[in-house]
Amino acid sequence: LQGRLEETEKLTLAGTLAAGIAHEIRNPLTSLKGFIQLGRGKNPQYTDLMLTEIDRINGIVSELLELAVPKPTTLERVRLDSLLNNVVLLLNAQANLYNVELKIGQEVEDDVFVVQGEENKLKQVFINLIKNAIESMDDGGGIDIHLTSSNQWAKVQITDQGGGIRTEMLERLGEPFYTTKEQGTGLGIMICNRIVSEHKGVLDFQNNGQGGTTVTVKLPIFLR
Ligand code: ADP
Ligand code: MG
């Protein structure tokens, strides 16, 4: 209970309302999902479509909730290298569906990257960015996730071999609802921007020479 009270105290009014609404939307969705699964035998194609759409609504609710909740107040020490390994494990299944291989490496072996912040929020950043990279690669290929560090920064570069981002579109990234995907929400990068700047970091998108995109996340290093 103590933990939950603290959670609630962190929320502003807007955040509290959003959390309440999210809860009210998710509950009936969970029942709907159950009933739809029960009737699956009759029309599996439609059933699967309905289940996918429900997952999509859940995803949108989570993103809106993320935007309504104010900045992190807990400052944990977060090991970026372990966090990235976890994110890769999480996304491997989706990557497989796209015939994409996620490759993770760091410049100096055994280097430890500790930053300060809220682990779940940082995780969200890399999930969003790597998902975008996967979704850009219709023809499959590899995504390189590379960690380097200087005295000041832990730097993560995510390089994909996807379709890239047209130059005139680069400046629109992070605008709410800007999406080129049929199923997109256009909220992912906005969320990343916010979380990264709350952690006093820098987020940057560039077309790499090979036609794909390189996303760079820099976060102030806390400990090595
Ligand atoms: P969504 O993924 O829901 O479309 P995002 O905010 O995550 O929303 O991304 C916005 C848009 O930026 C995407 O629709 C896509 O056009 C472009 N984009 C983001 N990352 C990449 C990438 N790695 N390669 C190509 N385009 C990208
Ligand atoms: Mg996205």
From TrEMBL:
Does Membrane show up as a keyword for this record?
Answer: yes
Q: What is its EC number?
A: 2.7.13.3
All residue ranges annotated as the Histidine kinase domain in the record: 20-223
Q: Which residues of the full protein are shown?
A: 81 to 304 of 304
* Top class in the EC scheme: transferase
Q: What is the recorded name of this protein?
A: histidine kinase
Q: What's its catalytic activity?
A: ATP + protein L-histidine = ADP + protein N-phospho-L-histidine
The GO terms this record gives for MF are:
ATP binding; phosphorelay sensor kinase activity
The answer to keyword Cytoplasm applying to this record is no
> Which keywords, in A-to-Z order, does the entry hold?
ATP-binding, Kinase, Membrane, Nucleotide-binding, Phosphoprotein, Transferase, Transmembrane, Transmembrane helix, Two-component regulatory system
